[in-house]
Structure formats: structure tokens, C-alpha cells
Write a structure and sequence with these properties.
TIM Barrel; two-stranded antiparallel sheet; 13 helices; globular
């Protein structure tokens, strides 16, 4: 199982000081957070993709390429790659390039984002959001798996004899997660292709997450990729910790109360009761996170949101120390207990390469038997 963090890259004023970081400071802070994630033993760093204030990560591959050069083990991912408004040709080429630069330490999460105006900014119609996600991803898969592609669709110009470059590393495309909070069509898409499904459940109650994950697992089995229990699932999470739970609540409250997304809305207490947000001691975070398995089953990736709402970099780095030193080691041990042997681990380039080699060997043996 993989543990990591994801960032939305918001530029938000610190409510306790009134100071807003510059865009440059926020970008550099995201890099520092990624480096810290590797230092404390986490597996994954994921960045969002946004094209509007107050967010800065408009070019995920630029940031991840820079982080790749400064890390050795960290899997570099996205918490959203906008499959609806990006050209699939550009996605195919950008992420294949990143894959080579990072020696295979790359996967990505397809999503539609949370900003409606991004559609007209990139010449698309938000009413076609689901259809764009389906058609664009179908083309992206072909671009990564076929050396020469002829294509005609509804949303982009025709391709004739097109080859995207560079080709995926070792002829193995990056693993793809499909991220959705509320759209069963996206869970269906993930299941159809045998890809991963990431439910970013940070704003949703457990029963909603359970329904979405169960639907994906059922459809994954329906399409013949394995049993429902073998489907590849990822979950989000949101935490703030201090050694003493009362200190955590007292320190985090002003950030929660003024956060751009949920500030001036539900109380901190109501939100922590109704969603996976956990504010307290490391032990409380451990217990809450372990409870996700009760409604999501044995899953492969757990990402936490920790750098948002104006929290200063120093505080975020302290959170990562607690996560890496006190929380994740226990989660690794406890999640491994009772995990069925046939539940797959989180996909990596090495595991995908091995699977591709096995498939080629099986095809060869089949042809030889037929001959």
C-alpha cells in the first residue's frame, strides 16, 4: 500500500497573521513539501492542476520534472490532470517525457477539475464534460499503446498517421487513476479499462464513498479484470496533528474557519464528524484512517491533504514529520494485517513492466501451441 500527500496549490492568506504568500513562495513551498515527503519515507507526492487564482500549479509536469531531479524514490503523480480541457496529444507527450526523466516514477490521475470556467478558457463546453473525459481518454490510451494512430472524434481535429513522442518508457504507459467525487460515469470508465479509481472523499460522508467504491469494484469485476476485491482503489484524507489533540484543534480552528472551500460554513466539529477530516493526535489519525477499510475494503493508495488554507510551510513540514515518523509506519503494519494475498499492491512501473512481459510470454506460448 502506498501513502503520500497531495496538494491543490492554493495561495491563501494565513488567518493568524494576515500575510499572503507570493506565488513564487507557494511554488517553492510545494517543492519543499515534496522533498520532505521523500525524506520522511512517504511513497507519493501528487499535485493538482488549476488555471485560475488562487491556485499556482498550472503546469504539473514542469513541477514534477523539477522534483524528479531532486528525489530518488518518490512516485510523482497528479491529483488532477484535466482530461477534459487538455489536448490528449499533449498529455501523452508531456507525461511520457516526464516518465523518462523520472525513470518511471510517474503515474497520473485523470479528472474534470472543480472550476467550471476552465472549459470556455480552453475552448470547450462544460455540458460536454463527461463526453470529453470519455473520448479524450480513449484517444490518450491509443497514443500510448499504438505507434501510429489514425483518429476521428467529436472534440479535436482528425489525426492521420500520427506518432506521439517520446514513446512511453519501456513501452509501458504510466498507470492511470480516474478521480471522481460524485460521477459514476468516471468510476465506470476506470472499471472498463481496468485502471485505478481514486475517490477523493475529503468532503463526503463514508456512505457516499462506500457506494462509489463498491460500484467501481463491481464494474471492474464485470469487465473481467479480476475480482471486485482486486480492483485498484485510492482514497483521499485530510488531517492536522499535534501531540496533544486539544492543541491540534486550537491551532487548526482559525485555518478551518477561514478556508476558501469550507470556511464560514459548518463547524469544525460537525465537519470532522461528517467527513474524513481528522484533527487531533497521531493516534486519532491512525484510528480514523484504519476505519476507511471498513467501507472501502483493502485498497492501494492513501493520500493526505496537509498544505492548504494558509497553513505556513513550517507547520506543514512539522505535520509531515509526524505523519512519516508516527502515523504511516503504524498504518503500513496494520493495513497489512489480514490483507488477502490476492489483493494487488499499488501499481508501479516495475510491476507494470513485469505484467507486460508475462502477457507477451503468454501470447507467445499460445501461438506456439496453436502452431
Amino acid at each position: 500500500m502506498q501513502f503520500g500527500i497531495f496538494s491543490v496549490g492554493d495561495v491563501t492568506a494565513d488567518p493568524t497573521t494576515g500575510r499572503t504568500p507570493t506565488e513564487r513562495e507557494r511554488i517553492k513551498a510545494m517543492v519543499a513539501i515534496a522533498l520532505k515527503a521523500e525524506e520522511v519515507g512517504l511513497d507519493v507526492f501528487a499535485t493538482g492542476e488549476h488555471h485560475n487564482p488562487p491556485f499556482v500549479p498550472s503546469s504539473p509536469t514542469t513541477m514534477l520534472g523539477y522534483i524528479a531531479a531532486r528525489t530518488e524514490k518518490l512516485v510523482l503523480s497528479t491529483s488532477t490532470t484535466l482530461i477534459t480541457t487538455n489536448d490528449p496529444v499533449k498529455i501523452a507527450e508531456d507525461y511520457a517525457m516526464l516518465q523518462h526523466l523520472a525513470d518511471g516514477r510517474v503515474d497520473l490521475m485523470m479528472g474534470r477539475g472543480n472550476t467550471g470556467p476552465v472549459y470556455p478558457w480552453f475552448g470547450q463546453d462544460i455540458r460536454e464534460g463527461i463526453n470529453l473525459a470519455i473520448e479524450n481518454y480513449a484517444l490518450l490510451r491509443r497514443l500510448w499503446r499504438e505507434d501510429v494512430v489514425d483518429w476521428e472524434g467529436k472534440f479535436r481535429t482528425t489525426l492521420q498517421g500520427f506518432t506521439s513522442t517520446p514513446r512511453p518508457m519501456d513501452d509501458v504507459p504510466p498507470f492511470v487513476w480516474h478521480g471522481s467525487i460524485r460521477s459514476p460515469e468516471i468510476a465506470e470508465q476506470a472499471a472498463f479499462y481496468g485502471d485505478g479509481f481514486f475517490h477523493n472523499n475529503i468532503f463526503w460522508p463514508a456512505d457516499h464513498t462506500k457506494r462509489m467504491v463498491e460500484f467501481y469494484r463491481t464494474r471492474y469485476a464485470h469487465y473481467g479484470h479480476g475480482t471486485a476485491e482486486q480492483a485498484i482503489v485510492g482514497l483521499g484524507g485530510q488531517v492536522f496533528m499535534r501531540k496533544n489533540s486539544q492543541d491540534a484543534v486550537r491551532e487548526f480552528r482559525p485555518y478551518f474557519d477561514n478556508a476558501p472551500v469550507y470556511g464560514h460554513g459548518p463547524s469544525l466539529e460537525d465537519f470532522t464528524e461528517q467527513t474524513p477530516l481528522t484533527v487531533g493526535s497521531p493516534q486519532q489519525v491512525i484510528e480514523r484512517t484504519l476505519s476507511f477499510r471498513e467501507y472501502a475494503g483493502d485498497y492501494q493508495r492513501q493520500l493526505f491533504l496537509m498544505d492548504h488554507a494558509g497553513l505556513p510551510l513550517k507547520t506543514v513540514l512539522e505535520q509531515l514529520d509526524l505523519l512519516g515518523e508516527e502515523v504511516v509506519p503504524v498504518l503500513r503494519k496494520e493495513f497489512a494485517k489480514g490483507r488477502p494475498a490476492d489483493v494487488p499492491e499499488a501499481p508501479t512501473h516495475a510491476s507494470l513492466l513485469a505484467a507486460a512481459a508475462e502477457e507477451k510470454k503468454a501470447d507467445k506460448d499460445k501461438k506456439e501451441v496453436g502452431a
